[in-house]
Amino acid sequence: MSVGSFCKVNSSCFDMVSISAKNQLTIDFSPLLGFSNHLIIEPWENGFSWYSLIDGQVEAASWRDDPGLPLNMLCSLSDDWCEAIPKNIRNIVIALENKHAAPAFSALRLIGLHSHVYEVFESAPLLAWMLMLHGIENEIDEVAMVELYRAKRIRMLELLGFPPNKAALKFISKIKGDEIKADFIGRLRLFFQGVEWQKLVHEQSYQVSAIYFLMMCPKIAENRRLLTKQSIKRIQASGLLPVLNHIPELITLPLLSALFESGSHENWREFTTILRDTIYIGDRYAHPDIRVKILACRTFTELNALHDNLVETYLNREPELPLRQYSWMNILPAPCRTLIERVRMNFIHYPQPPYPGNAYIQPITNQKQLFDEGKSQHNCVITYHQKVMEGTYYVYKILAPERATVGVRLSAGKIVGIDQLRLAKNARPSDQTKAWVLTWLDTNQSEGSLTDE
Questions:
Q1: How many CB atoms sit inside 10 A of residue 106's CB?
Q2: Selection from 350, 357, 344 nearest residue 385 by Cα
Q3: Which of 104, 265, 285, 370 has the CB geometry, 3.0–4.6 Å to 71, for a possible disulfide?
Q4: Between 401 and 342, whose confidence is greater?
Q5: Cα(419)–Cα(422) distance, integer angstroms
Q6: Strand-strand pairing, 361-363 and 17-19
Q7: CA 83 from chain center: how many Å?
Q8: Domain boundaries, the chain
């Protein structure tokens, strides 16, 4: 356990702290470490610095040797020592700690002795923080580090491996968010290399999550409505991102814009499921114009109609015939080949279901049952055959309180979430049916977590 973590949960930290008449703060870590170890922190007015006293021997510390004690915690241990630090500087350092897990001692050392360093931290805190981490990683001494903070901002960008221009500086100044950690610098370098970020400079601000999102799907920059915090959460939760990567042209289409008008998380999930299944059936069964047809859809209704037509075509097609490798199969009439394939499906058994069924919820245990479920319910559940065989998915048919189909996601043989719960033709089930299925799952579940998305 780190010293900071120990003090957060242990009131004895207050007994470890003493303050001299000259406002010198001493923290005795001996009880925690099992040997004589004291951290001595000089008061702000004497120039912020610190050193360790270990078994009576002084060990000096450079500006980079941060002991990992949050400023917030130190202020809770000694009001007098804390009050000596100007409030504006305390606020800057505490904000850096909270947002970026910044090393407080290193920041206080640089800011406390050099006013121009404070100016950079005040006006461009993210840039100042990244430059400080650069100095720590590259073991730059204090004198050289202070000189770096005197450099022009564009030169700072160049040192960090970012584009050395005003547009990049402006973009960085607009990045917001509490999830900026040390690895962000490397990610931001990759971002500048792989995304047309110049198109985004004129926005008011960007969340860090939007930066990461753009790295996964750079074309999203062409529809800025997708970069709001709420949109990013919905895209991630619905599983839409891989689909957008598959057909990037969707990003700028009215079909996607309709999602913003609905504002419903359930609509995002439904849209993603229908879109994903339409793409899968089209790609799997060689519809060369499937992307053109999807891109031509302007409403959910049109996309649903395209999906339903593909499903009907798929269910009524002549099935794949692995037995065609035998020459005698090829001379049979098509109806005979289809009949043989339907019989063969009965012998393609699925892995054991994660939970047993009951009189109203029954596992689908072979390919023929899955095919029949799709045909009966007019859905594309048969396209999940491969996932079921791989053990990452399972399908149950529901007989009451409504006739429905439920697909669940699996991990290590256990259900971890509901993927789809639909009536015939992908109609939405009633709340009673949802509650019935969730109760059945909860009853059977012995461990793990279940998420109804």
A1: 23
A2: 350
A3: 104
A4: 401
A5: 10
A6: unpaired
A7: 39
A8: 3-150, 239-315, 323-347, 349-452
